[in-house]
Design a protein that fits this description.
With 219 residues, the protein is an alpha/beta fold. A five-stranded parallel β-sheet has the order 2-1-3-4-5, sandwiched between helices. It contains nine helices and five strands; from the N terminus they run E-H-H-E-H-H-E-H-H-E-H-E-H-H. It starts with 11 loop residues before the first strand and ends in a 9-residue tail after the last helix. Helix 2 crosses helix 9 and helix 6 packs parallel to helix 7. The relative contact order is 0.16. 43% of the residues lie in helices and 11% in strands. Helix 7 links the parallel strand 4 and strand 5.
């Protein structure tokens, strides 16, 4: 492994999550989607083509952590990633506020227990490097109930990370700073989904974690 680089040549990196990870990766933007996963892959290819990494997108629009759990064996364990990034939580919260979807909402306690179950299972079966990402912030006041709930889920992710000794990346914290600054115009396609600047921020958080120092491309 290169000094300061948290990934080895030839590794498989898998991203699991909901629509913010999905980004049409099974459709018009196959195979990696048009979001942060594609950006991570592209920037690694540009700056470190020698790494020859395999990047896999296993996001699924609309998923809660319970949906993630239901497809975990097929979408994660069978893929046998060397490094696994997980970002989930927006639908767990938003379903609490949509009358016809309240039965699909996930409480903080159920979210915590499902996350703990997935980490234990993955370590038992594969033991890859597991990196947890806080869920994203909504483009709403940080005092609006959905954002307060997402801040609560971000704390749960921190708790799970601390319990299992996993790194946690500050996605909610970084995006909420942009929203709170009032400078988030153009950062979201709607109040839920980040647009290109939001995806770029998530990608840069991940690349910084991996130790990839971006520099001008070229000979």
């Amino acid at each position: 492994m290169d000094h300061g680089l948290a990934v080895r040549r030839g590794e498989k990196i898998l991203f699991a999550g909901d629509s913010i990870t999905d980004c049409e990766h099974r459709g018009i933007a196959a195979p990696l989607g048009f979001g942060y996963v594609q950006l991570v892959d592209s920037l690694i290819k540009v700056h470190r083509p020698d790494l020859v990494l395999e990047v896999v997108n296993r996001g699924n629009s609309g998923d809660t952590i319970l949906d993630l759990e239901n497809r975990w064996a097929r979408d994660v364990l069978e893929e046998k990633p060397d490094t696994l990034f997980v970002m989930i939580g927006v639908n767990d919260v938003l379903n609490r506020y949509v009358e016809e979807k309240k039965s699909l909402a996930v409480s903080d306690d159920a979210y915590r227990e499902s996350y703990r179950k997935l980490v234990r299972l993955t370590r038992r079966e594969l033991d890859p490097r597991i990196v947890l990402l806080e869920p994203t912030c909504l483009e709403l006041s940080l005092e609006d109930p959905p954002n307060r709930d997402l801040r609560g889920l971000a704390r749960v992710v921190e708790e799970v990370g601390a319990e299992f000794g996993l790194d946690v990346l500050p996605v909610f914290r970084r995006l909420s700073s942009v929203v709170e600054s009032g400078l988030s115009r153009g950062w979201y396609t709607d109040f839920t989904h980040p647009h290109f600047p939001g995806h770029a921020l998530i990608a840069l958080i991940i690349l910084d974690y991996l130790g990839l120092q971006l520099a001008p491309a070229g000979p």
